[in-house]
Amino acid sequence: MFLKAKQKERGAVAVELAIVLPLLLLILIGIIEFGRVLNVQVSLTQAAREGARYAAIHYKDSNPDVTGAAQNAAPSLSGLGMTVTNNASSCSSVPTPNVTVTTRISLPSLTGFLNGGAFGIPGIFPLSMTGVGVMKCGG
Predict the structure, then answer these.
(1) 67-99 confidence digits (pLDDT tens)
(2) Which of 50, 37, 31 is nearest to 105 (CA)?
(3) Distance between the two ends of the chain, CA-based, in angstroms?
(4) Whose CB among 10, 23, 113, 131 lies 3.0–4.6 Å from 48's, allowing a Cys bridge?
(5) Residue 128 in contact with residue 41, Cβ under 8 Å?
C-alpha cells in the first residue's frame, strides 16, 4: 500500500518546481533591477552635489569644469552617458544666489527582461533618471 502511494507522487516535485520557479526568478530579477536603480539614483544625486559644490567654489573661474567634477564623482556611471547642466554663470550676477547642477541619464535594463513586450506587459525601461544638487555660491 505504502509503495503504491509513493509511485503515484513520483513527478509531483518536478511539477511543483516548474510552477514555482518562474515566480521566484521573476522576484529575484525584480530585486536585482530595483537595487541597481537605487544605486544609480544615489550616484546621480552625489554627482550633482559634487558638481554644485565645485561650481559654488570655482564660479569666478573663466570656465569652471563642472561637468568634469560631476563625472569624476560618479565613475560607475561613466558608461551610461551622463549629461550635466548647471547655472554657475548666474553666481556673479545676483548677490548670494544658488548654483544648481542637474545630472541626467537614460538607464537601460540590466537583465533585459523588463524592457517590455514580454507577456504583453509594457516596458518600464529605459528609465529617465535625474539628480539635482543646489549650493550657495561662494561656499
Answers:
(1) 999 999 999 998 899 999 998 888 877 776 899
(2) 37
(3) 84
(4) 131
(5) no
